[in-house]
Amino acid sequence: MAMVKDPVCGMELDSSQAQAQTIYKGQAYFFCSADCRRTFDENPKEFVGKGPGQEGEPLPPVPR
Ligand SMILES: [Zn+2]
Fold first, then answer.
1. DSSP calls for 9-39
2. Whether 13 contacts 6, CB under 8 Å
3. What is the pLDDT of residues 6-61, one digit of tens each?
4. Quick check: 20 and 36 in contact, CB under 8 A?
5. How far is ligand 1, taken at its centre, from the CA of residue 52, in Å?
6. Domain spans in the chain, listed from the N-terminal domain onward
7. What is the pTM assigned to this prediction?
8. Which end of the chain lies in a sparser environment, N or C, as judged by fewer CB atoms within 10 Å?
9. Protein fold of 3-46
């Protein structure tokens, strides 16, 4: 089992207990409820790439 974070409400949950999941840009996201998944599906960009340490975050240009 693995603990994952519901990107919509921020709740931590066990991925095997997630009520809903979706794949966005090749990455699986887990949700505490179908409602949270619907919210995510409506506007995934709103919830992805927000927090620090997210994969796929564009790196700032390197000054030279
Ligand atoms: Zn949720």
1. T--EEEGGG-SEEEEETTEEEEESSHHHHHH
2. yes
3. 999 999 999 999 999 999 999 999 999 999 999 999 999 999 875 555 555 566 78
4. yes
5. 19
6. 3-46
7. 0.72
8. C
9. Ribosomal Protein L24e; Chain: T; (2.30.170)
